[in-house]
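Researcher: Quick test of sequence recovery. Tokens follow.
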């Protein structure tokens, strides 16, 4: 990134600025939708700068995905925390937050799942698996707090609703409110799991 006259180069700030710009660009265009030369031009950096901070384009992709996962999980956790102590309200908050995201003009689906579908390489698949695992831990925690007899099973079912709603929103029509429809299904599952006696 060009440095204004009189200012000093801060490697951490440069890396963060590249990461922020690349995140939006790669989400919009897809991992394979832009080559290194155009990527550098659009980011306003030289190839040398890109490689110094990330090693390769793949290194940049991995950093973008890791940062995006951190941001998404923090955002969902924040929505859950704001919903209070009731697990049903926490679960509803997850799907309400998702529906708001689906309605954003820039929405293109889950960047991590998109990346794994586009880039069949172990590193990207591992980052995506960790991301889904973090979602699963959050949802399983809600199921456990709700007193579900099998919180792990319910957590996996809820994760399927989250990911399914996201795919439908990305490839069909977010205005059909897939987040709201998945929310209703999730709350039905939660109520059934709470009603089921423990074994």
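Model:
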């Amino acid at each position: 990134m060009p440095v204004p006259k009189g200012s000093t180069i801060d490697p951490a700030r440069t890396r963060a600025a590249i990461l922020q710009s690349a995140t939006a660009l790669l989400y919009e265009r897809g991992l394979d939708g832009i080559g290194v030369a155009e990527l550098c031009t659009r980011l306003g950096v030289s190839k040398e700068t890109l490689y110094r901070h990330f090693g390769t384009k793949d290194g940049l992709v991995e950093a973008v995905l890791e940062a995006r996962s951190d941001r998404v999980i923090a955002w969902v956790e924040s929505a859950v925390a704001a919903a209070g102590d009731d697990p049903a309200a926490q679960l509803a908050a997850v799907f309400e937050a998702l529906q708001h995201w689906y309605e954003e003009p820039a929405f293109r689906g889950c960047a991590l799942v998109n990346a794994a579908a586009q880039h069949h390489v172990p590193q990207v698949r591992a980052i995506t698996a960790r991301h889904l695992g973090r979602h699963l831990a959050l949802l399983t925690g809600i199921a456990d707090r709700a007193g579900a007899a099998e919180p792990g099973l319910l957590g996996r079912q809820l994760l399927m609703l989250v990911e399914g709603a996201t795919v439908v929103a990305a490839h069909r029509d977010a205005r059909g409110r897939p987040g709201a429809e998945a929310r209703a299904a999730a709350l039905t599952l939660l109520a059934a799991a709470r009603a089921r006696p423990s074994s």
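Residues 83 and 90 are 5 Å apart (CA to CA).
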